[in-house]
Amino acid sequence: MREHNNSKYYDNAFHTLVQRTPELLIPLVNEIFQEDYHLDDEVIIQSSDLPTEDGSGEVKRRYSDSLFSIRGRETRCYHIECESRVDGSIVLRVVEYGLLKALRDARCEDGELIIKMPESAVIFLRHNHNTPDRFWVRIITPGGENRYPIEALKIGNYSVEELFRKDLLFLLPFHIFTYEKDFQEWDHDIEKIERLFDVYEEILCEIEKRRSMGELSVKTERVIISMIRHVMDGVTRNYTQIREEGSWMLGEVIDNEMTKMLDELDEVESKLDEAESKLDEAESKLDEAESKLDEVESKLGEAEAREDDLREAAKILTEKGRSGEIIRLFEDEKFLEDVLAGAE
After folding, report:
1. Order of all β-strands in the sheet with 42-45
2. How far is the C-alpha of 159 from the C-alpha of 178, rounded, in Å?
3. CA diameter of the chain
4. With 80 as the cut, is the pLDDT of residue 245 above it?
5. Burial class of 99 by CB neighbour count within 10 A (0 to 12, 13 to 18, 19+)
6. Residue 208 in this model has a pLDDT that exceeds 60
7. Please, are residues 132 and 102 in contact by the beta-carbon 8 Å criterion?
């Protein structure tokens, strides 16, 4: 997605949503890949930095839009790219990024090199009737061939009602692309601009409602709203009236105070995670120490019991006038047992 400088507004929004609101990825994955993850399943964000070497040995860096795993009944890896339009290179880039990721995680088992490709998809912010619902990749090897799909999600196919019904809140910031084709006409028609922002008034009210009901955190609510404003500012940059109305409704792009609050919240959460990790480590060491103490006490008990046995056996031998054989008690366990049992 980093091919054009003017893509930065939706590029930044996509990465911000992935990093700051990973829980929103679960309904998105369920929709794209027809999965059934629970909303409380764990999302693990992975590094999108995919270094590779060219023919001269120089390391070049490739950056995917998102790489993450979801831990449900099993842990599966997903790779999603966000594109403003279809071009001839997107499938090739998705395969390249997926292969770099697969090679990074490759492992050997019983002489086999196992390379597992992630589940891949592309979100198209703009599309036309030629944009497929799914791309297919066919890989031909000396051992045979295999096909696998790259799914395609088209923003323009989803109404606001459908986005909320399917919990696709991750896509709300990009909904503005649905109206983009009409901007030139609407920019000179205040009535149509007002109808557009009536839609966004409904969006903001529904987001606030979900936050008040505890379905969204304050942080997630503010990130979504800020990214709606951020993408809208980029898409409408050439349409003065629409942009001004959006600025009035949604406020400044990525408000500094809110960003500061989110950064502080992230720092607190990071320190809390670090403290919990140290607590877990301390508890583990305590368990280990207690285990060693139990082991020492067990050995001490065994030693005390053996000492009692030796004293008793020595007493028996002395009473039988066989004190010269006491030394054998320390050398021969069987002899000790026989003395105590009265067999000697």
Report:
1. 42-45, 67-71, 75-83, 119-124, 144-154, 134-141
2. 9
3. 122
4. no
5. middle
6. yes
7. no
- Give the number of residues written for the chain: 344
Q: Please state, in angstroms and rounded to a whole number, the distance separating the CA atoms of residues 285 and 99.
A: 40
What does the block give as tokens for 59?
């390391």
Which pLDDT band, with edges at 50, 70 and 90, does 5 fall under? very low
Tokens of 86: 């279809």
Integer Cα distance of 290 and 277 in angstroms: 20
pTM for the structure as a whole: 0.69
Whether the per-residue pLDDT at 260 is higher than 60: the answer is no
The three state secondary structure string of the chain is: CCCCHHHHHHHHHHHHHHHHCHHHHHHHHHHHHCCCCCCCCEEEECCCEEEEECCCCCEEEEECCCEEEEECCCEEEEEEEEECCCCCCHHHHHHHHHHHHHHHCCEEECCEEECCCCEEEEEECCCCCCCCCEEEEEEEECCEEEEEEEEEEEHHHCCHHHHHHCCCHHHHHHHHHHHHHHHHHHCCCHHHHHHHHHHHHHHHHHHHHHHHCCCCCHHHHHHHHHHHHHHHHHHCCCCHHHHHHHHHHHCCCCCHHHHHHHHHHHHHHHHHHHHHHHHHHHHHHHHHHHHHHHHHHHHHHHHHHHHHHHHHHHHHHHHCCCHHHHHHHHHCHHHHHHHHHCCC
The tens digit of pLDDT for each residue in 34-92 reads 999 999 999 999 877 676 655 666 656 667 788 999 998 899 999 999 998 887 788 99
In whole angstroms, give the CA distance from residue 45 to residue 38: 17
- Show Cβ contacts of residue 155 under 8 Å, excluding neighbours closer than 6 positions: 123, 124, 125, 126, 127, 171, 174, 175, 177, 178
- Tens of pLDDT, residue by residue over 164-183, are 999 999 999 999 999 999 99
